[in-house]
Write a structure and sequence with these properties.
five-stranded mixed β-sheet, 5 helices, 174 residues, alpha+beta
């Protein structure tokens, strides 16, 4: 039995099952396992095809990270971490959505904070970020987020501001 079987066995016992739209607990475990297997396949298939021809080296996929931001510990699992030819870390967020939606994320980087959160989990002062849209048409496409450092810094500033307000007894709007 290989690594994929071990992962599936662990997932079956340890992780909650959520539906595709995030509405709650999913009762159809085979569907959840199928999505997990598809995600693993995507990570493996795109390992050498997305951008490594540009001198980028794969480092880790599905990497758990923790980072203290003031008194708050951020914890998350980054889809993929690579090292660029210039030495900068490249953090990647895989998306199984239409390419136009991914481009909209980049056009409004302060509206979608997942990639910025990934960047906040890393100790790097400077880094690069990109979404990797996986689909049949036009295929696997990397969409760079050129403002990743500024968006990450704004996210961290917001976390620090809000936690300071809470510590002083302030209520925050929903």
């Amino acid at each position: 039995r290989g690594a994929a079987h071990r992962v599936m066995a662990r997932v079956e016992h340890e992780l909650p099952w959520w539906d595709v739209n995030g509405r709650g607990v999913e009762h159809t475990r085979p569907d959840a396992l199928e999505r997990l297997a598809e995600r693993r396949t995507i990570l493996l298939q795109t390992r050498g095809t997305v951008h490594e021809q540009d001198g980028v080296q794969f480092e880790r996929a599905e990497a758990w990270r923790e980072q203290m931001i003031g008194a708050v510990k951020l914890v998350g699992k980054i889809d993929r971490i690579d090292r660029q030819a210039n030495g900068l870390t490249l953090v990647l967020d895989y998306k199984s959505e239409d390419l136009s939606k991914t481009k909209q994320r980049v056009a409004n980087p302060y509206e979608d904070t997942q990639l910025a959160f990934y960047a906040a989990l890393l100790p790097d002062d400077e880094l690069a970020g990109a979404y990797v849209t996986v689909g049949e048409k036009p295929g696997t496409t990397k969409v760079s987020e050129d403002e990743i450092v500024a968006v990450r810094d704004a996210l961290i500033e917001g976390i620090l501001h809000d936690t300071a307000q809470i510590a002083q007894g302030a209520t925050l709007p929903a």
